[in-house]
Structure formats: structure tokens, C-alpha cells
Design brief:
Elements lengths: L11 E5 L3 E6 L4 E5 L17 H14 L4
Amino acid sequence: MSPTFPNARTDLTRILDAEHHHIRNGFGTEQLFNYVVDPAEHTDLALAPAHQAAVAQLRDSLARVAPRR
């Protein structure tokens, strides 16, 4: 694996809902993609104000199924 890949330096956890893919790395950085309209996941929506409810909901769901160690 290339050392430039994010998961070469830390664990990644992810969760999906009907339209979003939420990713959190071991450093606490989050990404959110709408894979329905952006299947190649080019546009990270995690910091967009319009998507904060989705980030919060998926963060809570992820914490229930994959709590931080």
C-alpha cells in the first residue's frame, strides 16, 4: 500500500445510508459523499452547511456500530 493513502496512516471507519457514504479516520477527520449523484465521490460534503444534519446522523450511527477505541 502506498504510504500516501489515508488508511496507510490510520484506521478508517465508514457507514452508508440510502444516499450518503460517511468516512471517519483515526484522526477524527470526516468525509461525506452523496454516492447517488456523485458515484466517483469527488465532492466531499462534510463541511457544507446544508449537509450537517446528514453528517450528525451518520456520525451517531457510526458511533453505535463502531465506537472509537
